[in-house]
Structure formats: C-alpha cells, structure tokens
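Notes from hallway chat w/ T.B., transcribed later so I don't forget. T.B. wanted the structure written out for a chain they're using in a teaching module, and asked if we could keep both sequence and structure tokens in one place. Agreed to drop them here.
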Amino acid sequence: MASLTVEIASLKLANPTMLAAGILGLSGLTLKQVADAGAGAVVTKSLGLKHRSGYSNPTVVQVESGLVNAMGLPNPGIDHFTQELREAGGIRVPVIVSIYGFTPEEFAVVAEKALRIGADAVELNVSCPHAEKTGAEIGQNPLLIEEAVKTTKRCTKTPVFVKLTPNVADIVELAKAAERGGADAVTAINTVKAMVIDIETGKPVLGNKMGGLSGPAIKPIAVRCIYEIYEAVKIPVIGCGGITTWRDAVEFIQAGATAVQIGTAIAAKGVHVFKQLTDGLESFMSLKGFGGVEEIVGLSHRS
C-alpha cells in the first residue's frame, strides 16, 4: 500500500490534503470536524491584530465553475481565537494559523500571538485581492514580502508559510523573495481578482464591487504557478486553487506541490471531499507502483 505521509518543514501530515484558509476555519469545532473527516492539516481563517467586521452583503456570488467572494477578512482578532483553539482540543493534525497585517512588523506581532495560542505554523496572507491596505500591498512587492518573512521569523519558532497572489506579472519573483526571507514553504495560489455585474440593474453584485475568484475556473492558472515556482525555489510548495477531485490533486503534486489545500470544493461536496481525495490518490499511486507521495512530487519536471 502506498504511503500518503508528507513532511513540510517540521510538520508531519498523515496525508497531503489541507483545509484552505477562509473555509470553515473560524470555529474550533469546524476545524475539528474537518480534521476528523480526513484532512492532513487545517488552516484557520485569516486573523489580524484587531477585530475586523468585513464587507457588507452580498459577499459571495456563484459563477460558472467557481465562486467570487469579497468577505473583507472578517475575524475576531488573534487574541479572541484562543477559546476556539481550546474548543478544537483533540485535533490530531497540525493547525496552521493564517494571519494578515498592515506592515511587516504587524505580521510578526500576530505570528508571535499565534504561537502562544498553540499554532503549529503560521501562513502569511499577503495575497487577499479585495481587502484594502492589508497583505495584498505587501504581497505584490518582493522586497516587502522578504522583509515581512524575515521580521516574522525573528519573532516565532513555528514554521512560516507565505500564501502568494496570482494577481502579478511574475509570481516566481514573489516565491523567491519569500525563500530569501526564510520562509519554510509557499502556498500558491490565492484567488484571482474578479467581478460580477447584474445586467438587470447594471450594478456590481458584490457589496465591495470586486472580489476573488476561486474554484475549478482557476485550476489551470494554479497548476502553471506551481510548476514555475517548483523550478525556481528549493522550499516546499503547497498547491491551492480549484482542486475538486483526486485527479486534480495528482496534477498539482506532479507539477511540484508537496501538499494541496482544499477550499471551494467543500461547498459542493462537503468535508467528505478529503477522504475522497486521499482514497483516490492512494489507489492511483498503488496502481502505478509508487511507494509514497514524494515519488510523484514534481514528476512532470522529470517526465
């Protein structure tokens, strides 16, 4: 039987699937539910230094092959998440806390607080396409990404991942900057900047007008990004963007992803999608004669 175990920095995952940030990650009970459903790790909703209300409704609209959302990073603030992690007690998988900040120094402060409340790792959200003055401004500038990672690494002993935006001319430069700063891994990609208009009123549907597209529509973009980043950096790459089936997961891993994050697919398939993916991945590897996931990471670069 093929082994699904993977390791990213100091984190050991029983399988290469992870809950993506922003999906079911604001409650300790839902984090535990996802872990119990078979995820190899869970990522929380993005948390900042202070409470943030987010945008007014509507914040999500369904489109062909995906969702467009502009939530505005609503969250209670990192200090108020302690109770949620207590409620999540008994989770047997790594808990990665997604964080955002307005400056490199703020990222570091939030990361330090995340460590104190029990985070196994932090994921720097420098890529939200619709939240003004948060990580997106940092995430489009390689120098600021490097500084944010360096500053964060000085303040926390947990692994630091960086979630990258595809809304730039060259995502590879962002990945290289994260690696130079000392990142333990990069996650690619976040949502693609998008917009939906109601033709009856002629007005944008979302309360914030513009949002981020997720789901199967962005999968080919994500695969391309993973492929390019894998060739450019030596740190692990975590794939995210439109993964719905085990075949999608295999494609991402062959492009260079060590693990994959699942988000929008949960809306359509529920939390059972994690077991479906791992069962399919295990069957595929056994059929092809692979002993473990590491044997197919980046396979498309060797074929």
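Follow-up for T.B.: The longest helix spans residues 273-288. Might be a good example for the class.
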